[in-house]
Amino acid sequence: MSHSHTVGVRQAQKQKTRQALLDAALQLLEEQSLSSLGLREVTRAVGVAPTAFYRHFRDTADLGVALVEQTLGSLHATIGEALAESGDGVRIDRTVALIAELVRTSPAHVRFIARERHGGVQPVREAIGAQLRRFADEVAAAFAREPEAAGWSEADLRMLAGVYVDLMVMTACAFLEAGPEGEEQVSSAARRQLRLMSLGRRHWLD
Amino acid sequence: MSHSHTVGVRQAQKQKTRQALLDAALQLLEEQSLSSLGLREVTRAVGVAPTAFYRHFRDTADLGVALVEQTLGSLHATIGEALAESGDGVRIDRTVALIAELVRTSPAHVRFIARERHGGVQPVREAIGAQLRRFADEVAAAFAREPEAAGWSEADLRMLAGVYVDLMVMTACAFLEAGPEGEEQVSSAARRQLRLMSLGRRHWLD
DNA sequence: TTCTCGGGAGAACGGTTGTTTACTGAATGT
DNA sequence: ACATTCAGTAAACAACCGTTCTCCCGAGAA
C-alpha cells in the first residue's frame, strides 16, 4: 500500500551504489580522460562485480553525462546569487571568489568539466555544451535587467555573456593549474580581466 | 666520405614512417583522446609491425608531445606576420581570418590541441602550456612595441596578451564546433569580442 | 667486397577489456 | 504467506593490449 513517492530500502541502496560508481569514476578521472576509463576499473574501485555496472549505466559515456549533469546542474542556483549583485565592481569580486571556492572545495569536478569539454566522447561534450549555454543565457538575462544594457542588441548581449562564461571557465582552469599557493595571483589576474571587459562594455556604444 | 648534412636513404625512410605514425595518430585522435590511443592502433593504421613503434617513440605520450611541437611550433612564424599589423582594427580582421584559415586547412591539428590542452596526459599538457605561453610572450612583445602601451605595467601587458591568446584558442574551438557553414557567424562574434577587449584596453588607464 | 649498424618483422607472453549467460537472495506487492 | 521483481554475483568468452625476445636484410662505412 506504500505510495510511489516513498523511497524504500530497495531504491535507496541502488542510488547509494550508483553514487559510489560516480564518485569512484570522478576520482579515477583525475589522471586520465573519460574515453580511456574502463568499466571494470570503476567497479573494482567501488568493490562490486563488473556486471553490476550495467544496472546503472549503459557504458562509461552514459556515466559521463550523468556526471556532467550532477556537477553542473547543481551550480545554477549558486550562480544566480552572484549575478544578483548589481554593482559592477562588487559582482566581479563575488564572481571570482565564487569560482575560487568552487575549485577549492571540489577540484575533481572542475577538472572533469575542463577535460571533457573538448574531450573524446561526443555525448559528454554535448551535455557540457548545453549546460554552459544555459549559464550564458542566465548571465545574458541578468545583464539585460541592468540599466547599462540600454541600446544593446540581443546578439551583442549574448556575445558579452558568452565571453563572461568562457572567462570563468578559463579562470577555473587557471586555479587548478596554479594550485592553492598561487590562488591569490590567479584571483587578481581574473579580476583584471573582468575589469577590462567591463570597461569595454561601458564604451561599446561609441 | 659523405658529409654529415647529407640525408641518406636510411634516415629519410626512418623519418618517413615516423611522419606516417604521427599522421595516423592525428587522424585517430579525431574521435578519441590521447590517453585512450593504443600503440597497436597506430601501427595498424600505418601498416607496420607494432614493435616498429618503439624505434620512434617511447610510448603514446611521447608521440603526443612530438605532435604538439610539430603542430604549434610551425605556427610562431605565421603569428608574427599578423601581429606586425599596426592598425588596431586591421589586426583584428587579420587575426580572425588567420585562425579561420588555420581551422579550415588543418582541423585535426586544432582539435588535437584543444582536446589535449586539459587532457589526461601530463607531459602533453605541459608541452601545450609551454607553447601557448610562448605565444603570449610574443603577443605581449608586439603590444609593448606600440604607442598605446605607454603607462602600462609589464604584468598588465602580460595579462592582456594572455587574454588575447586564450580568446584565439576559444575562437578556434568555436570554428570547429560550428563547422564550415557557421564560419561567418563565428568570425563576426570573434571580431566583436576582440573589439570589446580593444575598447577596454583604450580606457584602461582611468 | 666485407663488416657493421639499425629499422622493421614475427611470434609469443601475461594481463585486461567489454559483454553474455545463468544464478542468488532480499526487498517488495498482493 | 506466497509470488515476483531486481540489484548484485560468478564464471566464461573472444578480443585486444603493451612489452619482450629473436631474427632478417638492406644501407652505409671500411
TrEMBL record, chains A, B:
Cleavable signal peptide: none
Domain HTH tetR-type: residue ranges: 15-75
Cited Pfam families: TetR_N (PF00440)
InterPro entries in alphabetical order: Homeodomain-like_sf, HTH_TetR, HTH_transcr_repressor_FabR
Keywords: DNA-binding
Domain of life: Bacteria
Keyword DNA-binding listed: yes
The keyword Signal belongs to this UniProt entry's keyword annotation: no
Name of protein: TetR family transcriptional regulator
Annotation: DNA-binding region: 38-57
